[in-house]
Amino acid sequence: MLNLFLTLQNAQEGAETITEGESVEKTLSIIELITSGGAAGQVIIAILFLLLIFAVYIYFERLFAIKAASKVDSNFMNQIKDHVSNGKIDSAQVLCAQVNTPVSRLIGKGITRIGKPLADINTTIENAGRLEIYGLEKNVSILATISGAAPMIGFLGTVVGMILAIFELANAGGSIQMDVLAGGLYTAMTTTVGGLIVGIVAYIAYNHLVVRTDKVVYQMEANSLEFLDHLNEPI
């Protein structure tokens, strides 16, 4: 009878221990998730992190430059047309130099060709416009490269992680241990997520800069046409 009582008591304690063990939830922070991926996963995550920093830097540097380029005084073209109509070419050039925006530099190039055929003035403005567009798009193509390369680097980590997991399975000797497979699986999953995050951020940043650049280009074209139309007006 005493043995039966002790057996029941031990069984009850064991059940309580299992219940307590099941109630404990295992948490995993981002740092632990990265460090659990092994050396290969950490290297790839480090590369993705550097790409993310580079992409964010290029985005904000270009964004501020494009914002500065898009600031044009609404009265600028009226002043230019007044100076040109009154024959004050030097005053018009000084005004363009003071404003110092892509639009003003284009108009300034056109002003230096006043007196020559309108086609020559138009060609000069177009050539200057190409240079201005090239300056606005500086390093923007790098964002497009990062948006495509980052997911591929993440998938590379996935392949490496799966290879490590299969290698551990092959060397397990018939017994599968989940803790042995964890390192390879962590590498596979974390690098994929990291690559997709960096790729998405770079892709959105690239498209936003392209839209902002196009607005400045349209602004340049509109002001250039207005300037050429003014020169083509009969005196």
From TrEMBL:
Domain of life the protein comes from: Bacteria
InterPro entries in the cross-refs: ExbB/TolQ_transport, MotA_ExbB_proton_chnl
Membrane-spanning intervals of the chain: 39-60, 140-166, 186-206
Compartmental location: Cell membrane; Membrane
Record's keyword annotation contains Membrane: yes
Key words of the record: Cell membrane, Membrane, Protein transport, Transmembrane, Transmembrane helix, Transport
BP GO terms, sorted: protein import
Cellular compartments per GO CC: plasma membrane
Membrane protein topology class: Multi-pass membrane protein
Start and end residues of each MotA/TolQ/ExbB proton channel domain: 100-221
Record-linked Pfam families: MotA_ExbB
Stated family: Belongs to the exbB/tolQ family.
The name this protein goes by in its record: Outer membrane transport energization protein ExbB
Native source organism of the sequence: Seonamhaeicola aphaedonensis
